[in-house]
């Protein structure tokens, strides 16, 4: 049995750990960011998921929004778990561990890291208090031991090591898909819902419709209907069931994906722009139901709340549009014009990329020996993402097809080194390079960095920015010509 206690906030979730619950934390990065979840948070989340998959009795405390976070498919999680035993085979540990989300470092200190030094492979995987050291003979595992990070001495010999995937990806599963035996409790249901709505409004202001890619809101009603409301009995330090006089109904806000307020302009997918006049409860042959009331120029349309996906808040300037007629053709004509415009733009893009495929560019093959020496001057160990990006960019440069690539990464994540490897490849292939940056300060920083790295290899680096005089700029331009 897996027991889930829903509380309003993460702070309260941490407080209830004293009652025997383990806190299942949320991701500590914005949804859909390229930045990975921090290793400590990933470790805790993955360990809890692994316990659930193994059928352990777990008591979890978390928030509603964390429960709705989309996760890796549980079967995929199981398929990625790597069981290593003495006498077994571990081929290409660098590739294998990198593909599972582990980061290669010189010395393993934190969970999620691994190192390879000759026949010794160190890896720190969730589920173990210390990192493990594997001794290999070719591909064969000779011995597995846990070791102390500070002393590097072995502390325990293992008969097997389970290496869990160290990735926290968003697919279409949630925590509830990891077991078929859940009991959901909710502490202060009204506050839980209020806090979730606040979070959702904040997230939707940042990522818009992409919210649906990060959170599985379609299970929300089922979760709240199945959850048993409880309160804390202080004296006995346990939760007791709260008796309800009547069945709760979900507030409209939980259906309303766009935070629509009365008087707002909305867009109905099939009928166009209307004024939202609130929610009304109507009786028909099927009984009483809630409907969204939309006023058009010539009529009123009542939309069942379960069809809310057809309605979106109008996000343009209200003064620039008028309400459509429910029986008119203007909306259909507008949709048709937009569709034709999109098709035209798509055709233009397809033609553009087809032309790019036929254009022959320069093939820059470089000098492997010199490039290897240059790579050795990088004072850090490349991350797996850096190595992959460098390899792909250099492959593009070696190809005769023009490169069309955008490299994205947060500040400090190593984009400059990828650019330097591309610059060096271009220069040793006999060509010049111009690096454009948005500010004078950044230009100066790159100039000093590039000089330090490139000039020992005979590469001349110059700065061309607003700090240079006209005469200095002219000298640089003359050097370029020569």
How would you sum up this structure, described in words?
The protein is of the alpha/beta class and 482 residues long. It folds into 4 domains: 2-74 and 168-241, Rossmann fold; 82-163, Penicillin-binding protein 1b fold, CATH 3.30.2060; 256-327, Thrombin, subunit H (Beta Barrel); 368-481, 3-Layer(aba) Sandwich (Rossmann fold). It is built from 15 helices and 19 strands. Strands 2-3-1-12-13-14 form a 6-stranded mixed beta sheet. Strands 5-6-7-8-9-10 form a 6-stranded mixed beta sheet, with helices on one face. A 5-stranded antiparallel beta sheet has the order 18-17-16-15-19, with no helix packed on it. Helix 2 (39-53) links the parallel strand 2 and strand 3 (58-62). Helix 11 runs antiparallel to helix 13 (415-428) and helix 12 packs parallel to helix 13 (415-428).
Write the layout of secondary structure elements.
Elements: E1 2-6, H1 10-15, E2 22-23, H2 39-53, E3 58-62, H3 64-67, H4 74-80, E4 82-84, H5 93-99, E5 103-104, E6 113-117, E7 120-123, E8 132-137, E9 140-147, E10 154-157, E11 161-163, E12 182-187, H6 189-207, H7 211-214, H8 220-226, E13 228-233, E14 238-241, H9 252-255, E15 265-268, E16 272-284, E17 287-295, E18 300-304, E19 311-313, H10 330-358, H11 368-375, H12 384-398, H13 415-428, H14 440-454, H15 470-481
Helix pairs in contact: 11-13, 12-13
């Amino acid at each position: 049995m897996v027991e889930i206690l829903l509380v309003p906030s993460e702070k309260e979730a941490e407080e209830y750990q004293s009652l025997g619950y383990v806190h299942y934390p949320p991701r500590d990065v914005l949804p859909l960011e390229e930045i990975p979840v921090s290793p400590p948070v990933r470790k805790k989340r993955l360990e809890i998921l692994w316990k659930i998959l193994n059928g352990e009795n777990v008591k979890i405390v978390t928030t509603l929004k964390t429960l709705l976070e989309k996760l890796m498919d549980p079967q995929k999680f199981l398929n990625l778990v790597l069981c290593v035993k003495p006498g077994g085979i571990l081929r290409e540990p660098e590739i294998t561990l990198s593909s599972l989300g582990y980061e290669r470092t010189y010395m393993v200190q934190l969970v999620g890291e691994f190192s390879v030094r000759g026949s010794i492979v160190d890896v720190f995987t969730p589920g173990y208090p210390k990192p493990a050291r594997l001794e290999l003979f070719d591909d064969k595992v000779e011995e597995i031991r846990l070791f102390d990070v500070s002393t590097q001495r072995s502390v325990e010999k293992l008969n097997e090591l389970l290496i869990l995937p160290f990735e926290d990806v968003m697919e279409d599963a949630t925590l509830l898909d990891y077991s078929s035996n859940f009991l959901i409790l909710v502490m202060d249901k009204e506050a839980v819902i209020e806090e979730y709505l606040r979070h959702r409004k904040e997230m939707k202001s940042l990522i818009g419709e992409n919210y649906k890619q990060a959170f599985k809101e379609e299970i929300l009603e089922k979760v709240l209907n199945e959850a048993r409301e409880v309160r804390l009995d202080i004296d006995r330090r346990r939760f007791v069931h709260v008796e309800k006089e009547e069945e709760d109904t979900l507030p409209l806000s939980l259906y309303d994906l766009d935070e629509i307020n009365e008087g707002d302009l909305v867009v109905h997918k099939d009928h166009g722009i209307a004024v939202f006049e609130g929610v009304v409860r109507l009786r028909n042959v099927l009984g009483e139901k809630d409907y969204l009331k939309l006023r058009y120029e010539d009529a009123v349309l009542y939309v069942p709340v379960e069809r809310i996906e057809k309605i979106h808040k109008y996000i343009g300037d209200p003064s620039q549009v008028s309400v459509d007629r429910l029986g008119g053709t203007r909306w259909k004509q507008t949709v048709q014009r937009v569709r034709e415009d999109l098709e035209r733009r798509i055709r233009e893009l397809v033609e553009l990329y087809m032309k790019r495929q036929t254009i022959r560019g320069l093939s820059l093959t470089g000098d492997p020996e010199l490039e290897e020496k240059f790579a050795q001057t990088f004072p850090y160990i490349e991350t797996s993402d850096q190595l992959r990006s460098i390899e792909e960019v250099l492959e593009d440069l070696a190809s005769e097809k023009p490169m069309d690539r955008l490299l994205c990464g947060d500040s400090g994540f190593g984009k400059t080194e990828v650019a330097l490897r591309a610059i060096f490849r271009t220069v040793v292939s006999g060509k010049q390079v111009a690096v454009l940056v948005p500010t004078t300060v950044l230009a100066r920083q790159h100039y000093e960095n590039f000089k330090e790295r490139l000039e020992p290899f005979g590469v001349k680096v110059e700065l061309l920015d607003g700090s240079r005089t006209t005469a200095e700029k002219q000298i640089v331009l003359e050097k370029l010509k020569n």
